[in-house]
Amino acid sequence: MKIAPEDGPDLVLARARKIAKEHLRAKRPFVWNATNIADFARAPVVRLCRDYGANVRIVYLETTWDETLRRNAGRSRVVPTSVIERMLSKLEPPTVRDATRVDWVLAERRPNVR
Questions:
Q1: Model pTM?
Q2: What's the sign of the alpha-carbon dihedral 26, 13, 5, 99?
Q3: How does pLDDT run across 56-93, given as a tens digit for each residue?
Q4: CA 90 → CA 30, 37, 38, 53, 85, distances in Å?
Q5: pLDDT tens across 13-32, in order?
Q6: Are 58 and 42 in contact (CB under 8 A)?
Q7: Topology of 31-105 in CATH?
Q8: Boundaries of every domain in the chain
Q9: How distant, in Å, are the alpha carbons of 21, 39, 66, 75, 105 from that of 63?
């Protein structure tokens, strides 16, 4: 949509919801790819899907701290480490109550990695 992050998250969300409703009405499977790190962000999407009678599967992908920083460094628009740390402090991983199915793809744990 070529919208700067600070200019239109509401526009992007409204468009995504519209597309999701089209898929839900047609009973077509689709993926909602988002960094919904907290329940308050996930819940409205899950509720929308459930309102249409859809089964909801959440796939929670976790990386190590080192891998997160490596991927971030390779982005065209690097996210400041302080922002990533703030997001990490607010992280609420999904639970089995959040969806019909929840898959956790967890990073390999090492003693000195956050």
A1: 0.79
A2: negative
A3: 999 999 999 999 999 999 999 899 999 999 999 999 99
A4: 27, 7, 7, 30, 9
A5: 888 999 999 999 999 999 99
A6: yes
A7: Rossmann fold (3.40.50)
A8: 31-105
A9: 31, 19, 8, 16, 9
